[in-house]
Amino acid sequence: MEPTHQLILESLPEKQYRSKLEPHRELIRELRRKGRTYREVARLFHERLGLYVAPSTLHSFVKVRAKHRKRTQFELPPLELSSATSPALDRVAALRAKPVVPKSKSARFVFRENEPLTFTNNGGEQ
Amino acid sequence: MTEYSKRVVFTMGGKGGVGKTGIVVALAEWFQANEIPVTLLDLDTENKARGSLKHFFDGTVTKVDVHTPAGLDAFVDHLDGGAPIILADMGAGAGQVASDWFDSMYEDVTATGVRFTAVGVVTPDPASVESVLAWANRLQDRVEYVIVENATSALADFTYWRSTKQANRFREVFAPVGLQMEFRLAELENPLRQYGIQLGQVADRKTVVDELKRASLVMRAQSYRRRLFSEFDRARQVFLP
Question: Which of A104, A109, A115, A119 to mutate to test the interface with B (most CBs of B within 10 A)?
Fold first, then answer.
């Protein structure tokens, strides 16, 4: 890097962009887990916290963090996670995975009864 | 993996008069000579008296009508606690019954350790060959095949069996065990059928029929039996569980 550029960077303090929703991240996550829509979450924030936030802002907040931190589960947990605790769902998955036995195998030998027997090239020779 | 402990050996019906019952009678004698217990089932409802399996082994043969909804369930019933081998003489016209039964029962019956051997008898008559091939078309590879060439005359010609494309294809696909039943003199064969007497009874001089006590016929019977048993010995893997 050029020395001039380096100086500029060093002269500027660190600035972390933080959403106003950052302090409420865990609350949003839990509400989403409980099945609340972004519209409902926005209304709750307004009624209980006096915080005005658009549903689309909540949506972007959740999506951006979900993308950057893939291991963090903001959205509803996928079916596989809940199936681990549900024997019925395990059995459903097992049944779905069960190989299907073909109803009938294709015939290895075909004989058409309405057709006469035909000799091979050396037919008739014993 | 299935452990096989039982075997059903049955004749492929279809063409009548080719010698199906004759081969079953001979097989029953072979098992008897080897002291292996078998259950004999006569499924030939058309052949009611003379010439039927029951005629040869009266008292030890169970007659079964396969033309009922239960069809060949007799196989299952008689293998349950009975002899490990069933020898069944299937009558002409039982092809559809057998096919339907195999379609609905085969998988579950084989899962209990039962194997099947279908015995087809061919003669110089092309209809006998067509009959065997038609049965194979239905049974496919659910059975092991034994094909008996029954020489109905001194110079029997098996061209239709040995040299047709359809029969060749059958041999290529299923690799059947081939056996030969030689032509038997009418002086011996006809009284055997007439009186329901086994070949072994003549060979061992245990018959009360005078015309079958002739020394030459006794010797013939002994020769026929020896050669036929030798054929069965060769194919024993498909007759034993």
Answer: A109
Distance of alpha carbon B215 from alpha carbon B221, whole angstroms: 10
**Chain B residues 121-150 with a CB less than 8 Å from chain A:** 126, 129-130, 133-134, 136-137, 140-141
CB pair distance less than 8 Å for A108 and B141: yes
Please give the model's pTM, rounded to 2 decimal places. Answer: 0.71
Are the beta carbons of B130 and A113 separated by less than 8 Å?
yes
Query: In B178-214, which ranges are continuous DSSP H helix?
Result: 186-195, 199-203
pLDDT digits 0-9 by tens, A91-113: 888 888 887 766 666 788 999 98
Q: What ipTM does this complex have?
A: 0.78
Strand order in the sheet with B85-90: B61-63, B38-43, B85-90, B6-11, B114-122, B144-150, B177-181
**Element counts in chain B: helices (H) and strands (E):** 10, 7
For the record, the structure tokens of A108 come out as: 């290895």
Provide the strand spans (E) within chain B. 6-11, 38-43, 61-63, 85-90, 114-122, 144-150, 177-181
